[in-house]
Amino acid sequence: MIKKITVVGLGYVGLAQALLFNPHHDVTGYDIDEDKVRAINEGTFKSHDFDVENALLTHPLHASTDFNASVKDSDLVIIATPTHFDEHENTLDLSSLKETLEKISRMKHRPIILIKSTIYNGATSQLQAAFPDLTILFSPEFLREGSALLDNLYPSRIVIGTRLENENERQIAEEIAAIYQLAAENKPVPTLIVGTKEAEAIKLFANTYLALRVAFFNELDTYAQTKSLDSQAIINGVSLDPRIGDYYNNPSFGYGGYCLPKDTKQLLAN
Fold it and tell me: How many CB atoms lie within 10 A of CB 115?
C-alpha cells in the first residue's frame, strides 16, 4: 500500500504533484535548490500559480535537499526532473532521470518509481533495462504552467504506463491510478492502464496536436490580416463546428512554454 511519497524535482510539475498528494499521504519534496526548499518549508515560496501558494499555506509541505533521507522510507518516488531537448543530440536529455535512478539503485530500499518527466518513446523500457532491480512506471502529465495544481485536481484523464505482461506491475499501476483518483476533485476520472511506450506516445502526440492547433489559428489570423478580414468572426464560425470546438483558438505570435516546443521536436525526432 502506498503511504509515503517522495517527489524528486520541485519545478511546476513536481511541486504540483507533491501538493496534490500532501493532504492524503505522507509526502516529502526533494530539490537541489536550497533557496526553494527553504521557502517551501517556511511557507514563503512565491509562484505564478495562486493555487500552489494557497496549498502550501493550507497543507504545509516538507521539502529537503537531502536525497537519501527523502527517499529511504518511501513507497513511491515520483521523478519530475527537467528533461530539456538537446538540439545537438536531437533528443530529450534524460541525464537527470538517470542520475536519480542511479542514486536509488545504490540504496537498500526499493521504492516504486513513477516518472512524470517528459521522455522520448521507448525511454522507460531503456531505463528499466539499465536498472533491472527497480520497478519503473511512467505517467504523462497534461498540465499548464500557472495552473498545474488545478489541472492535477481536475484532470482530463489518468494514464499509467507499465509492463502489461507483468501482473504485479499491472496491479501497482492500478494502485497508483487509485491514489490519483482519490486526490482528484472531479471523480471519477477516465483512467487508462497501458504499455509504457503507449503512455509515452500519448504525451507526445497530445502536445503535438495542441501545438498544431495553436499554429493553425495563428495562420488563420495571419491570413485574415493580409486580406483585411475580421479574424475573430472567422474563428467564431470555424469553432462552432463541434468537431473543432471553441478552445485553443486564440491567435498569438507562436507557441511557447516548456512542453509544446520540446515535445513536437521529440516526436519529429522519433
Answer: 29
Least Cα distance to 17 among 192, 183, 199 occurs for: 183
pTM of the predicted model as reported, rounded to 2 decimal places: 0.92
Instruction: Give yes or no for a cis peptide into 188 (omega within 30° of 0).
Output: yes
What residue has cell string 485574415? 224
Which amino acid makes up residue 111?
Answer: P
Contact (CB, 8 A) for 83 and 116 = no
For 197-212, what is each residue's pLDDT tens digit? 999 999 999 989 998 9
C-alpha cell belonging to residue 204: 507526445
Q: Virtual CA dihedral for 82, 270, 159, 146, nearest 10 degrees?
A: 40
Amino acid at 41: N
- Choosing from 56, 259, 263, 264, which is the catalytic residue? 259
- Any residues with CB less than 8 A from the CB of 148 and at least 6 apart, and which? 12, 13, 15, 16, 49, 52
Told to judge if 259 belongs to the known catalytic residues of this protein, a careful annotator would answer yes
